[in-house]
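User: quick one, fold this
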Amino acid sequence: MQARRCLIDAEEITRRLAETRSATLGTVDHTGRPHLVPIVFAYRDGRLYTAVDHKPKSTNRLKRLRNIETNSAVSVLLDHYDDDWTRLWWIRVDGSARVIASGPAFREGIALLTRKYQPYEDQPPPGPVIEIRVETISAWSAT
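Assistant:
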């Protein structure tokens, strides 16, 4: 059986980055061990933003933030599953992240997230914001 590689074009990638509601953020800790966490995000002009929000957490010193401080290389995976396997797709964004607690990039990230997610309209995330400078995008679709 021969595998078929189906890539998603740039316009479709941009549309899916704008419309997809959740993704998985991958960071790496100081020992090289991967750490995955579900996120909500916003994307604009080669930057992807996510923020620490009000949802309950075990600590304010989140592992993803510590990992980024140690190693800025991150990946974000968006994917769609369907029992109709002709509708499967994924997009992986690789880039460099930084943690931002204030300033213009912080305000831009919060504004983009607030526009995309209705729950944030009433209670914007306090932050910090993670800004990811997109370096590469890989994508695949079954069709």
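User: anything notable?
Assistant: The chain has a mean pLDDT of 92.
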